[in-house]
Amino acid sequence: MRVFPHRRAYRKRRPLSRIVAMTYRSLERANAYFYDPARRRAVIARHGGVGYLSSGVNHLQTPRVLLDLAARELRERRLIENYTAPGGALGIGAAIAFEMHDRLGRPARGAIAPANVCLTVGATGALAGAFRYLADEVCARSALVLGLNYSFFSIVCDEVGIAYRIARSELRDRLLPTADEACARIAAERPDVVVLSQPTNPSGETYDSGELRRVVDAVAQAGGWLVFDEVPSLAAADEDDLPAPLADDTLATFPPRLIWIGSYSKSRSLAGLRAGYLLAAQPVVDFVRKHNERQSWSPVNAGSSALTADMILRVMARRLRRSPGRDAQRIVARTARDARHYLELFAPFSDDFARFDGIWRFLDGELDWPTALESYTADLATIGATCRANWSDFEQRIGPYLAHRIALQSGFNHCVRLATGMTEWDFVTAAFDQAGTDFYTETVFADHDDASSTDFWVRVSCAAEPDMFERGVDRLAHFLDAASARR
């Protein structure tokens, strides 16, 4: 007889009130329209290109130091000639543990080790592995997602047999439930899994540390699991870290019912590398590593030196931010020594696992750390400034049609309601055909597929090159002006 060590077999669960229409169908419908070859050719010919105002991808350039490292890696290392381990390149796992220890401080050092880190094929791979574990090993059957969210949650739940629904705020100017609303829903419905993104996608909302603590406690009191997703974060070098879903007291082990997901796609414009990761208790990590092995053998190796360096540079930037006025060179040198300790201890092997010759020697031999940090922070500051400037341009040009907007707290995705006078689907298709702009709207992120309403949320993604963004906004403004004149 099979034993489920984490299964809550002796307590009745309150079922979710309905089985929902999975939102991935809405995304499939939108993508089928946007990427139909004949239609896309016609739109590009008519408008000179597609204006990305809503893609959700960070289209701005990766920090130059990371690109240079990745290019050197392809010439000088053997990562693309070998498979990595099913849990991913050892150096990245060690660097993630190093960065998390610095971010969370001494209380978390006993909770996060490389054994708690698993690299995946994008954050979608982390979600797929995590939900497969929850369905197969925990027998989870219900999930509550706080706020509108990325539609891949829905297809993963659909595939593993987990009923899924969205919890929205009752307040007009927000989508993420308040902490009071979230705690009440969790207590009433007692879902097996609660999903929370910080910041939320598409609305860029966050909980502060006190609110997050209350939500985490509510999940624990309901006996549920928390899937905590930080993928939409820009992880800017000049911003404070977002609150973490861990207790303030010292942890000897990773919380057994927490799965924490991250990625380099949004934060570092590296979606094409498909580099995601999760942090979890070792039984979850072991399961997902086996899931990796069965699905794709191992995550992508290429670019791992850049991803490892990114974590080290994040720590350097944080320590300088926390110690204004201190000797910067000394802080950077100390951080490099600390990183070397982690990498030599946890990632000692060569790229073919044949000898002791780990990633640290390559990184330290290629980088002057103070110069690399200066370039890295300047490039990230430029990305942040570009996102803010693009949003300002959007507000000024589209202002007359902005019916509602949610105040951005973090990330680069804004959420607005536009006064279009059209149904959601009519707006999406007409804006693409007549203005050459693609929009992902409410049904792509919600738990329903009904695109017939005239009152719907629209994602505006500001991480785009300014000239592309400006052209898209200009075309959208003319489109809305023409539609208004016809009403």
Automatic annotation (TrEMBL):
Keyword Transmembrane helix listed: no
Keyword Zinc: no
Pfam families cross-referenced by the UniProt entry: Aminotran_1_2
Highest rank taxon of the organism: Bacteria
Class of the enzyme per the UniProt entry, highest EC level: transferase
InterPro entries: Aminotransferase_I/II_large, AspAT/PAT-like, NHTrfase_class1_PyrdxlP-BS, PyrdxlP-dep_Trfase, PyrdxlP-dep_Trfase_major, PyrdxlP-dep_Trfase_small
Record field: catalytic activity: L-aspartate + 2-oxoglutarate = oxaloacetate + L-glutamate
EC identifiers of the protein: 2.6.1.-
Domain Aminotransferase class I/classII large: 53-294
Cofactor: pyridoxal 5'-phosphate
Keywords: Aminotransferase, Pyridoxal phosphate, Transferase
Annotated GO MF terms: L-aspartate:2-oxoglutarate aminotransferase activity; pyridoxal phosphate binding
Single GO biological process annotation from the record: amino acid metabolic process
Similarity annotation: Belongs to the class-I pyridoxal-phosphate-dependent aminotransferase family.
Name used for this protein in its record: Aminotransferase
Organism: Rhodopseudomonas palustris (strain HaA2)
